[in-house]
Amino acid sequence: MTKIDGKALSAKVKEELKHEVMSLNESGIKPALAVILVGEDKASQTYVASKEKACKAVGIESIMHKLGENTSENELLALINVLNLDDSVDGILVQLPLPKHINTNNILKAIRPQKDVDGFHAINVGNLVSGLDGFVPCTPLGIMLMFKEYGVDLTGLNAVIIGRSNIVGKPMAALLLNANATVTITHSKTKNLKEICAKADLLVAAIGKANFVSADMVKDGAIVIDVGINRLDDGRLVGDVDFDEVSKKASLITPVPGGVGPMTIAMLLSNTIKSAKIRASK
Asked: Mapping DSSP to helix (H, G, I), strand (E, B) and coil, where does residue 33 land?
């Protein structure tokens, strides 16, 4: 079993991005990411703080907009419009989840596709499915870079994804299909889930259920990617995969923490710099 070190790969990516930022600075471009946080959700505050820290580490300007829990949808849309029109802003990130009175789809739709560094806009989703260039959601993009770094040839692999979210499951399926894997997406309504997973050469778990994937769901020698981050009652962070048992069968596996998580933030920085390069080319 080889443990995929997302922390080390993320550090390597950030080092490369630092040099790209320096190069952009020399041509008069300072990459900037606007982050909007609505409300007081503790997990969201933690994520935003880590993104801010990561931006600073590579030289990206992080522009924070912290809005109250009672901010209206129209107020949020007005702020996004201002940022859309600001040529000095390369990326716009609205931290999810939003308060329940705000329609998330309306907000994501309002961000210009060219500044949608999360890759959630319908135009970027369409580009991904069509195999065209655009912004790809950060978590699946980071996983693809892990495969490249660890020499995984996806051609012909039987890939099974547990979870069909717009953030991970669906874009992950599109990327794997584009890389010539044979893809099955499973979810809460899937019949014979255990049997389907047990045939997978590559298993991606992204459902948010602690230790859900047990050893009997995993084929000997399978590659296992654990996207889940779950906090147990004793405060420990664990993934969707029972790491101790599954790691005995997997050929490659991501730990939690230190696997997929660091790559997600690295890809957010990468997407922001990609946007800044497009601005520089104009």
From this structure: strand
Query: Which residues participate in catalysis according to the annotation?
Result: 51, 95, 118
pTM over 0.85: yes
**Is the distance from CB of 277 to CB of 27 less than 8 angstroms?**
no
DSSP strand pairing (237-238 vs 230-231): antiparallel
Query: Letter for the amino acid at 6?
Result: G
Residue 93 is classified by DSSP as E
Assign 55 to helix, strand or coil: helix
- Tell me the C-alpha distance between 123 and 87, whole Å: 20
Report helix, strand or coil for 118.
Answer: coil
* Strand duo 158-162 + 182-186: pairing: parallel
Residue 261 forms beta bridges with which residues? none
CA distance 261 to 239: 11
Summarize the confidence of residues 73-90 as an average pLDDT: 98
C-alpha triplet 121, 227, 174: angle, nearest 5°: 45
C-alpha dist (Å) from residue 143 to 43, 76, 102, 148, 149: 22, 31, 30, 9, 10
- Lowest mean pLDDT, pick from 140-154, 172-186, 228-242: 228-242
- What tokens were used for 89? 């802003």
DSSP calls for 68-92: -TT--HHHHHHHHHHHHH-TT--EE
Alpha helices in 199-259 (DSSP H): 243-246
Question: In 41-76, which positions are buried (b, 16+ CB within 10 angstroms) versus exposed (e)?
Answer: beebeebbeebbebbeebbbbbbebebeeebebeeb
Query: Do residues 258 and 142 make contact, with C-beta atoms less than 8 angstroms apart?
Result: no
84 and 117 Cβ atoms separated by less than 8 Å = no
